[in-house]
Amino acid sequence: IRAVDRRAFAVHLDVVNMINSPRRYFENTDFIGECFSKLGPYIKSIHAKDIILTSSLTTHLEERRPGNGYLNYAAFLTQVSLLGDVPFMLEHLDKESEYDEAAAYVRSVAKDNSIPLLTW
User: Fold this and answer.
1) What is the pLDDT of residue 120?
2) Among residues 25, 111, 33, 15, which one has the least CA distance to residue 75?
């Protein structure tokens, strides 16, 4: 980011897209912390989804809606809340009801962990 050297250059963070191995999957709490530690000042928007490691013969990671996977959402939302007013976008869901369920899950994790979320 420093090498690009442009004030308008920023990060759209998608943690799930960067989980590319079983180690990173099982250690996602540490990875979330690392992402926000290194990229925090540059993060201007976030994609939110979840991830599972399937039981297939070869390693296969699949996206899921928030709440249907293994991502540590308490750790994720804690870091997100420190950024202030940053767009947090649910994505890749087929039905409006799935977006409603995903949003409800995110809000419940935030509430259960006393994590402030900016909502409208």
Assistant:
1) 59
2) 33
Q: Quick one: CATH architecture of 11-112?
A: Alpha-Beta Barrel (3.20)
pLDDT in tens, 60-91: 999 999 999 999 999 999 999 999 899 999 99
* pLDDT computed for residue 26 by the predictor: 98
- What are 36's two structure tokens? 């926000």
Query: In the chain, what are the domain boundaries?
Result: 11-112
* 8 A C-beta contact, residue 16 and residue 47: yes
Answer yes or no: are the C-beta atoms of 24 and 80 closer than 8 Å. Answer: no
Spacing of C-alpha 69 from chain mean position: 12
CB atoms within 10 A of CB 19: 23
Distance, in Å, from the CA atom of 75 to the CA atom of 107, rounded to the nearest integer, reads 14
